[in-house]
Amino acid sequence: MSAASALLPPRAGVRRLDPILVDRIAAGEVVERPASAVKELVENAIDAGARAVEVTIEAGGRRLIRVVDDGIGMGAEDLALAVERHATSKLPDGDLTRIGSLGFRGEALPSIGAVSRLAITSRTAEGEGVSLTVESGLKGPVRPAPAARGTRIEVTDLFAATPARLKFLKSDRAETAAVAEVLRRLAVAQPQVRFTLRTESGSPTVFPAEAEVNEAATLRRLGSVLGPDFPANAVPLSMAREGFSLEGHVGLPTFHRGAGTHIHFVVNGRPVRDRLLLGAVRGAYADTMSSDRHPVLALYLACEPGLVDVNVHPAKTELRFREPGLVRALVVSAIHEALRRAGARSSTTGARAALDALRPSVSGIGGPVGEGRFTVHTGAAAPSLMPRPARTLFSGPSLAAPAGWRAPAPAMPDRSGFAETPQAAFAHDFAQPDLPPAADLRPEAGAEEADAHPLGAARAQIHGTYIVAQTRDGIVLVDQHAAHERLVYERLKAERAGGGVACQGLLIPDVVEMAPDAADRLVEAAPELERLGLSLEAFGPGAVLIRAVPAALAGGSVKNLVLDVLDALEASGVEEGGPAGAGDPDPVSRRLDALLSRMSCHGSIRAGRRLKPEEMNALLRQMEATPLSGSCNHGRPTFVSLGLADIERLFGRR
Question: What pTM did the predictor assign?
Answer without folding.
Answer: 0.75
